[in-house]
């Protein structure tokens, strides 16, 4: 019996060790693997918390170490305070060169206080690497595509948000200092944590002329009275002191610019677009990311993660650019965006300027209109997710967050009102939502929304172009001439070029060439039945095709001398990858 037990134990250890050597995660030793999740990941992570810059960096390094054939990590620049801007390149490096694959770009945290955008980007990188050997779809995806993931664009502001006193709206930007109040001093009147609890909450003061009352159901919530109702309090804004004695509180905060107004398309100065700086590309972070994107012309799709509101946003950011989105391209966006509404209940597919507000100089327009990349921006988190139902109350009248805090967070979402003697305002009270509540997910909700949003992005990435040579035919002509006709199909819904791209010649055409034969003429087949062709008189061996439609095909034809058997048809598309096939 002992021998049998020892043999069984040895066999089990051998099986587990062998599985791990092959990169295959074995089933959990106790219980059963939950469907859709890595069973025994090499890189152990918990997704019920928010990670700081050191942990973001460590995740990248751990993935590279665990999966060197799938993950590479590089710094593409430095933040204002000198932190590396990490990009993870994730693909099956053994299947083909990544520059020959359609690319998909992802970033999070361009607004530093929008914490979960970074978590979704991190989760996506982790899930792709950990699932490569166990989920066929992921395996195929990484063989066909390459992902470029910038986990955080504003690492300085994120560190400030985590480790310094803030409210849910600060710090939204990076940490470049400015004289926001025009008094010649820089950052001299920032937020003050009056009770040193790490949260910047609200200040209130009892007043006979106040227009605010405490909600009797939820004591931390204040509501504004209406009509002739008499209030009990006046609201004094966020915690702070008049540090520079100018009669104002919190008027010269750190940053106060918007990194998502610093991009190159339809940029407007600050007096038109609040948050813009001196010129597009003022910030080192956005300059570095722009350079990376421009230097990777294979990027065919992109996804940026923001919050709040539960939205799949497409461009344009301004109404004057509506005409630049052709009906054929909008059909692609509609297909992906409307499916997203099913994948993530409570999220809605919207157009930025129509359904949200006007944005000039935004990243999404830079990607879609400067680079021709099909791009979405997801606004993460929405009150729908609290109780899985839609609330018709306005954003500021919605009390669901207080109800959710009471029944599911047990009061952890708010700082209870407490008395404080303020040097300028006298006896006041401070309290309200903590800095990482309302805008950012509670811990137990992070992973589900991260997975759903990742799945939306993976569907988008899957639909980037996939070119296949579906047929090569030869036809003997007079003399020693032979016609070689190749049919190339795009088997995904995203075309190789957006219509805006084609019109403005942003990216090179698709090149379809025949190597190994003597070429007499080359042409695009417009209508084979009616014998309509467009001849390419210069360099006929390589035919330039402006666009291969999603789920569409093109035919090209060469007239060659002699037997073309053994010649090779090569297809090269910046955003659609490469494919080759021999003529038989």
Features:
disordered N terminus, five-stranded antiparallel beta sheet, 26% helix, 13 helices, 584 residues, alpha+beta, eight-stranded mixed beta sheet
Write the layout of secondary structure elements.
Layout: H1 2-21, H2 53-66, E1 71-78, E2 84-90, E3 103-108, H3 115-131, H4 136-144, E4 146-150, H5 155-163, E5 202-206, E6 212-214, E7 222-224, E8 233-238, H6 284-294, E9 299-307, E10 311-314, H7 327-343, E11 348-351, H8 352-356, H9 363-370, E12 374-380, H10 384-387, H11 400-409, E13 414-422, E14 426-433, H12 443-462, E15 467-476, E16 481-490, H13 499-504, E17 510-515, E18 518-527, E19 532-535, E20 542-545, E21 553-561, E22 568-573, E23 577-582
Parallel strand pairs: 3-4, 3-9, 9-12, 10-11
Antiparallel strand pairs: 1-2, 2-4, 5-8, 5-14, 6-7, 10-12, 13-14, 15-16, 16-21, 17-20, 17-22, 18-19, 18-21, 22-23
Question: How many DSSP H or I helices?
Answer: 13
> Mean pLDDT, rounded to whole units?
93
> How many strands, which pairing sense, and closed or not: the largest β-sheet?
8 strands, mixed
Measured by DSSP, the beta-strand proportion falls in 25-35%
Overall shape:
elongated
SS-based structural class? alpha+beta
Distance between the termini: 64 Å
What strand line-up does the widest sheet have? 1-2-4-3-9-12-10-11
